[in-house]
Design goal:
Layout: E1 3-4, H1 5-11, H2 17-25, E2 29-31, E3 34-35, E4 42-43, E5 49-51, E6 54-55, E7 64-69, E8 97-98, E9 106-113, H3 116-123, E10 131-138, H4 143-151, E11 154-159, E12 162-167, E13 172-179, E14 184-191, H5 198-205, E15 210-218, E16 221-222, E17 231-233, H6 236-244
Parallel strand pairs: 9-15
Antiparallel strand pairs: 1-4, 2-3, 2-5, 5-6, 7-9, 7-17, 8-9, 10-14, 10-15, 11-12, 13-14, 15-16
Helix pairs in contact: 1-2
C-alpha cells in the first residue's frame, strides 16, 4: 500500500514527520535513485529510499527511552558549537531523536524515540499532554500573580530581533516552598504547550526570574529511579498508554 514519503521516513526513524518534510524539500531524499523534493509524494513498500545517500530501513525496531537530561546538554542530534547533545548520551543501536526540546540549562524528563508517528502526535498542537516543571525563582509570587498563570498570561518576547506576543494557555501553578533568607521560592507549573522558553517567559512576565528549571514529568512519565544523564526504556504499558491517546486532553479551558 502506497504511503506518503515523509510518513514512511518518520516510521523508519529518520526524523519526525515535520523534519522529514524539510529533508525532502531540501533535496536530501531520493526514491529509486531519483531526487524527490515534492511533499506528498507516495511510495510503495518495494521502493528504495535514501537520505543523503544512506538507505532507510522501514522495518527498523521501534524503541522508546526516557532520559533525565542534565544541565549543559543541548536537545538536538548535533551541535555546530561542539556542545554535548542528548544523542551523545543515548548509547543504543537504533537511531532515535528527541520529542520536543528542553533548554540548554533546563534538566529533566525528555522522551526520545524513532517512532515518528507517535512523536508527531505528541508534538501536535491540538493534543494537550501535561508537562510538569519545578522552577526555582527569584522572590515569591503572590496569589494574584499565580492567578495570572492560572487564567493564562500574555507573554511578550523578542526572538532574533523580532517581537512576539502570545497568550499562554491556563496553567496549574503552586508554590512548593520559600527561602526568605535567599529571597527565592520553588514553584511547580503544569502546562501543555511547548513554546520557546515558555516557562521562563511566563515567570518573567509575572515578575519572577527563573534561576533553575527542571521538567519532572512528561505525561505519566516521571524521573523515578533516574539521575541526571541516565535513561531507561519505556515499558510496554507506558508505550501503549502514550499511543492510545489517554494522556491527551482536547478540551479547552481553565484547570
Amino acid at each position: 500500500m502506497a504511503e506518503r514519503l515523509q510518513k514512511v521516513m518518520a516510521q523508519a526513524g529518520v526524523a519526525s514527520r515535520r523534519a522529514s518534510e524539510k529533508l525532502i524539500t531540501d533535496g536530501q531524499v531520493t526514491v529509486n535513485g531519483k531526487l524527490v523534493t515534492e511533499l506528498g509524494t507516495k511510495v510503495e513498500p518495494s521502493d528504495h529510499i535514501e537520505v543523503n545517500g544512506t538507505p532507510i530501513d522501514s522495518k527498523e525496531k521501534l524503541v522508546y527511552f526516557l532520559l533525565d537530561k542534565p544541565r549543559g546538554v543541548v536537545t538536538t542530534n548535533s551541535d555546530d558549537k561542539g556542545r554535548q547533545t542528548v544523542m551523545d548520551i543515548i548509547d543504543e543501536p537504533e537511531r532515535v531523536y528527541p520529542v520536543g526540546r528542553l533548554d540548554y540549562d533546563t534538566t529533566g524528563a525528555l522522551l526520545l524515540t524513532n517512532d515518528g508517528e507517535l512523536a508527531n502526535k505528541l508534538m501536535h498542537p491540538k493534543y494537550r499532554i501535561d508537562k510538569v516543571y519545578v522552577a526555582k525563582v527569584k522572590g515569591t509570587p503572590t496569589n494574584e500573580q499565580l492567578e495570572q498563570l492560572r487564567h493564562g498570561v500574555t507573554v511578550k518576547t523578542v526572538q532574533n530581533g523580532r517581537h512576539h506576543v502570545f497568550k499562554a494557555a491556563p496553567a496549574r501553578a503552586d508554590i512548593l516552598s520559600t527561602d526568605k533568607k535567599k529571597h527565592t521560592s520553588i514553584v511547580r507549573l503544569t502546562i501543555h504547550e511547548g513554546r520557546y522558553h515558555q516557562v521562563k517567559e511566563m515567570m518573567r512576565t509575572i515578575g519572577h526570574e527563573v534561576i533553575k528549571l527542571t521538567r519532572e514529568r512528561y505525561g505519566m512519565l516521571d524521573l523515578d529511579g533516574l539521575t541526571p544523564g541516565e535513561y531507561r526504556p519505556l515499558t510496554h504499558e507506558e508505550v501503549q498508554l502514550l499511543q492510545s491517546g489517554r494522556q491527551f486532553r482536547k478540551s479547552a479551558g481553565r484547570w
